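User: We ran a pulldown and think these components assemble together. Before we commit to crystallization trials, I'd like a predicted model of the whole complex to look at. Sequences follow.
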Amino acid sequence: MDTRTGEGCRFAFNVRWLDPNTHLIWHYQLFYYTHDQSIEMFDIKNQRIFLKRVSHPEIHLEHLYLGASISLYSRQLIIESYGDEFSRKHLQGFQETTFALIKPDGIKNMGRIIDLIFSNGFLIKELRMCKLSVEDARNFYKIHSGKPFYEALTQFMASGLCVAMDLVAENAVRRWRTLLGPTNSQDARDRDPNSIRALFGTDSTQNACHGSDSLESAKQESDFFFRDRNFGSCARLENCTLCIIKPHLVFDGVAGQVIDLVLKKFDVTAMEMVTFSQPNAAEFYEIYKGVLPDFHAMVHELASGPFIAMEISNKDGQGNPVSSFREFCGPPDSQACRIVRPNTLRAKYGINKIKNGVHCTDLPEDGVLECKFIFKHSFNPFVDAMEYTNHNLR
Ligand code: UDP
Ligand code: MG
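Assistant: Here's a predicted model for the assembly, 394 residues in total across the polymer chains.
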């Protein structure tokens, strides 16, 4: 089949959808036309068009990578594989994944580092803050065991929080290593002053970030951090409030700027990229059901793509941060917020009442509950839709 269509290309993917009502798993072919950003879907079982070709300017080709979850007419679709050879050949290199780690000395600058990741064209596919034990650090860096710096390196890696990420881009492995710069931060400042290690690293051991050196190590290192969801879990679940950087800001690549602003006033004590199914989002917002007229639109936005959740604590770790963090975010409607509280997060980053940049916990007694909801659960949107339905049927 000719895959060229006018000026653009047609890319094909195999996607699945779990119908939360019937428990049936549906398999579709999804076609994406770059020319007009339109999508068409074909029902494989019944051999017929399921969705006529229609433009979806909110969905970009780079959002369609293997394992991605996209929301289309309230259906959560998971991309399982490429649908044809043309798509595989053209997208595989473009969609290379590498593993990145912000080391303990880089954490205070993690907002700026994440901003550089986005502004250099990477997408973040997975992200989780964690705390390594010395034993974890020894395992992660076992290829360096016996070297003179091994002891100091592993002690340093276990001395504070880290942020693990899977980054997607064309030639991601090489490009991330280039953006990091030389291993020794002092050399980096001489030879590549705009590199991440030059800007945020300290010396030859404390160099702000790690990057995989090959596709094989990227896979291994990503599995090390992400296979066991509870690995290095760091949420405190006390004296905390929840902040969610909503999907529209993650799509727009400005999450790093938001994190940087938050860090100026508060501590971030846990962080994770999460994708909600519609039922997850409805459960999370349950207290607003029947109270806020925009409930369904809010659920739809929260389930529209990956978001970044943060557990926020006061800098001294004491006291309840819920109300001070709400002040920092501003009133819920971003348009009104720009008039009455122009220096708040929602005034700066929100668009309207629904796409208002961030969610923050409302009630002082709910900070811990909302953090538990996020950091104590596993949200595979595919599995969860099924669990949710089972739960509701019991
Ligand atoms: N390292 C060190 N002293 C050295 C070389 C490396 O402490 O002389 C640390 C540094 O944190 C580095 C890590 O060990 O990032 C892994 O070393 P590698 O040679 O793999 O450098 P990288 O791949 O991180 O650039
Ligand atoms: Mg290395």
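The pocket of magnesium ion (ligand 2) is lined by residues 213 (CB under 6 Å). That may be worth checking against your pulldown data before setting up trials.

User: Thanks, that helps.
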